[in-house]
């Protein structure tokens, strides 16, 4: 089990924030009384991105159960949250990031669809991916491989293709595309971002290229060849 400090603090701190501002429960569709554990909290915060209705209610229950059953998925989501909180550096800490950070919601939605894909629920994973694509203006395919401790700043406009690989500690700004080039269309047709790589806003990385560990891709760049490690 993760030693992440948020296991002890996140639920009570978020409940306190909801109590301090009752309007949050109305706007987010989150009833404090229904938050009985971390799994229900994470599910409620994620599905608050979706329109009210039966689909949101159903997905909230499915997601909460997934987090209870797949402890590793919950641990990874908490590690993502801890890192995002540190990187965002805004007042309010982890509860505010959990409730309001679009980039974190994008990553969390991927964690859920990825877990369902691996468990064999491929159609369900794709349907959930589609829901969050519309809600968050992101496209992250559940087949992609994304490591722990990844940071999506803003998240808006992210496109991450099916065979993309993103290792631990990678940072992506808004509008980044990890796509294919329609020439190399094999199994590994999308980019690989190695540990600690940074990709600036609006950059397009296309095809089976590799961005080396610790490398930085400038905002707006179009990358079609490998980027050596630790280069700018």
Automatic annotation (TrEMBL):
It catalyses: L-serine + acetyl-CoA = O-acetyl-L-serine + CoA. Residues 16-107 form the Serine acetyltransferase N-terminal domain. It comes from the Bacteria. Its EC number is 2.3.1.30. One of its GO terms (molecular function) is serine O-acetyltransferase activity. CDD domains: LbH_SAT. GO terms for biological process: cysteine biosynthetic process from serine. It is an enzyme of class 2 (transferase). Pathway: Amino-acid biosynthesis; L-cysteine biosynthesis; L-cysteine from L-serine: step 1/2. InterPro entries: Hexapep, Hexapep_transf_CS, LbH_SAT, Ser_AcTrfase_N, Ser_AcTrfase_N_sf, Trimer_LpxA-like_sf. Coiled coil: none annotated. The keyword Acyltransferase applies. Keywords: Acyltransferase, Amino-acid biosynthesis, Repeat, Transferase. Belongs to the transferase hexapeptide repeat family. This is Serine acetyltransferase. It comes from Paracoccus homiensis. The lineage of its organism: Bacteria, Pseudomonadati, Pseudomonadota, Alphaproteobacteria, Rhodobacterales.
């Amino acid at each position: 089990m993760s030693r992440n400090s948020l296991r002890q603090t996140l639920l009570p701190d978020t409940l306190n924030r909801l109590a301090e501002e009752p309007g949050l429960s109305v706007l987010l569709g989150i009833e404090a009384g229904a938050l009985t554990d971390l799994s229900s909290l994470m599910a409620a915060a994620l599905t608050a991105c979706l329109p009210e209705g039966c689909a949101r209610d159903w997905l909230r229950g499915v997601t909460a159960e997934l987090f209870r059953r797949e402890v590793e998925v919950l641990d990874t989501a908490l590690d993502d949250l801890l890192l995002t909180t540190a990187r965002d550096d805004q007042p309010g800490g982890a509860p505010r990031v959990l409730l309001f950070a679009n980039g974190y919601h994008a990553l969390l939605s991927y964690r859920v669809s990825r877990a369902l894909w691996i468990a064999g629920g491929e159609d369900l994973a794709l349907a959930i991916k589609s829901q969050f694509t519309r809600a968050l203006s992101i496209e992250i395919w559940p087949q992609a491989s994304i490591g722990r401790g990844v940071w999506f700043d803003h998240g808006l406009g992210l496109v991450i293709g099916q065979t993309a690989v993103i290792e631990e500690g990678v940072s992506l700004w808004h509008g980044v595309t990890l796509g294919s080039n329609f020439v190399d269309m094999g199994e590994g047709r999308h980019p690989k971002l190695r540990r600690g790589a940074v990709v600036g806003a609006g950059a397009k990385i296309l095809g089976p290229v590799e961005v080396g560990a610790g490398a930085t891709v400038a905002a707006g760049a179009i990358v079609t060849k490998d980027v050596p490690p630790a280069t700018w």
